[in-house]
């Protein structure tokens, strides 16, 4: 099997971005609340139009969808904060759909929170933010970036590779035998574009020529995506990033869907209908996302369109969660087995342990160990 094979699909969820310092969907609420609280408190002394002290409030104060005689940015931010603190939704998507009047502001806060988490300047002072953009190669957090192992002599060794590096190594290995025009298909439910940024930096950083990464990867974002700054970029307009990010987010079950998102969602369903081998990385199998994929009922027991064999799905259960296993059963109607080549394959840790994505890839999660 090759990742370039027609019918092979990789699905990426929030868990795939955790190694780069981003929170899961549930933890996102706490991150957003903390950031918004800090800026509102800071605004008491510096006001809400100082880009150095309160970049989020200063940005939304200039936004025509927030500012104006009938609505004050600080008031709107305080209202959103109270809503977020009292929310019962399990996901940000649900919160946005159920609180339409706060949707735009909430999307802007998502964009601000994501870039803050990735490029955290350290400390509470936002003044360092402008100097922080573009300085660090993803991932930023040493505790997640550096996997510590032990040599035979007992000394610790440190690896700076992340799972996208491993994906690149597998893709390069298979590139020489791929059919002309074939691409690795990736469906990402993440707003961040860390995957694209790492490919920008690493895909062609060797002497052998593989072409631009877009010739080998097709990445679709059915919820939209936020164009992260290029690695090494120093002149990032933070305000523009926040507002562009808000405009590019489109959660499941929203009514007004832009044409480009409608197109991508149609492409996603078409890809899934033809799928034969599906690999889920950090994907929680939430009902709304499964609906966008067209997954349900007997999907993984049925033959792919025009094929004569059932689909196969592999997924990483990072902490052995019964809930994730149950959702896979429920939405995909799988009977899991512990061997490759069966209908379903669950990669899970030892009892009570944790399995990182890079560990699963080393174990052959994508059908081949990275070189």
Quick tags:
single chain, 371 residues, alpha/beta, six-stranded parallel sheet, two-stranded antiparallel sheet, 10% strand, globular
Q: How would you sum up this structure, described in words?
A:
This protein has 371 residues and is α/β, with parallel strands linked by helices. The protein folds into 2 domains: 8-22 and 160-362, Rossmann fold (3-Layer(aba) Sandwich), CATH 3.40.50; 25-142, no CATH class. The protein has 14 helices and 8 strands. It has helices at 25-46, 55-60, 73-86, 92-98, 103-118, 129-132, 142-145, 163-175, 194-202, 238-248, 259-273, 287-293, 322-332, 357-362, and strands spanning 8-12, 147-150, 156-159, 184-188, 217-220, 277-281, 312-316, 344-347. It is globular, with a radius of gyration of 21 Å. Mean pLDDT is 79; it is low at 121-159 and 336-343.
Brief characterization of the structure:
This protein has 371 residues and is α/β, with parallel strands linked by helices.
Q: Report strand order across the widest sheet.
A: 5-4-1-6-7-8
Distance between the termini: 16 Å
The CATH topology name of the largest domain reads Rossmann fold
Instruction: Please outline the major beta sheet.
Output: 6 strands, parallel
Q: How many β-strands, per DSSP?
A: 8
Low-confidence stretches: 121-159, 336-343
Count of distinct structural domains: 2
Assembly context of the chains: single chain
Strand content: 5-15%
State Rg. Answer: 21 Å
Mean pLDDT: 79
């Amino acid at each position: 099997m090759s990742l370039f094979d027609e019918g092979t699909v990789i699905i990426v969820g929030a868990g795939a971005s955790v190694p780069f310092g981003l929170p899961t969907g549930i933890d996102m609420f706490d991150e957003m609340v903390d950031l918004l609280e800090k800026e509102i408190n800071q605004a008491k002394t510096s006001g809400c139009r100082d880009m150095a002290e309160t970049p989020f409030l200063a940005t939304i104060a200039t936004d025509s969808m927030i500012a104006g005689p009938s609505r004050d940015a600080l008031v709107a931010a305080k209202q959103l904060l109270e809503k977020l603190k009292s929310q019962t939704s399990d996901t940000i998507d649900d919160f946005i759909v159920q609180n339409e009047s706060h949707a735009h502001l909430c999307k802007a806060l998502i964009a601000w929170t994501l870039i803050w988490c990735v490029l955290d300047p350290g400390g509470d002072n936002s003044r360092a933010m402008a100097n922080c953009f573009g300085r660090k190669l993803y991932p930023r957090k040493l505790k997640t970036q550096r996997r510590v192992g032990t040599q035979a002599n007992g000394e610790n060794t440190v690896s700076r590779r992340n799972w996208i590096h491993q994906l690149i190594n597998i893709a390069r290995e298979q590139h020489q035998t791929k059919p002309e025009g074939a691409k690795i298909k990736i469906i990402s439910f993440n707003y961040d574009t860390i995957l694209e940024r790492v490919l920008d930096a690493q895909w062609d950083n060797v002497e052998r020529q593989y072409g631009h990464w877009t010739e080998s990867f097709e990445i679709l974002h059915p919820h939209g995506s936020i164009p992260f700054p290029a690695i090494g970029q120093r002149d990032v307009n933070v305000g523009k990033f926040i507002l562009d990010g808000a405009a590019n987010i489109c959660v499941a079950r929203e009514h007004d869907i832009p044409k480009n998102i409608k197109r991508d969602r149609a492409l996603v369903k078409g890809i899934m209908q033809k799928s034969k081998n599906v690999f889920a990385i950090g994907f929680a199998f939430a009902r709304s996302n499964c609906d966008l994929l067209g997954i349900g009922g007997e999907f993984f027991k049925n033959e792919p369109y025009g094929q004569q064999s059932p689909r196969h799905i592999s997924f990483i259960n990072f902490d052995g969660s019964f809930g994730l296993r149950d959702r896979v059963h429920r939405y995909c109607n799988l009977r899991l087995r512990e061997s490759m080549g069966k209908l379903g394959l669950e990669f899970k840790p030892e009892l009570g342990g944790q399995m990182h994505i890079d560990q699963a890839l080393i174990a052959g999660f994508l059908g081949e160990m990275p070189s």
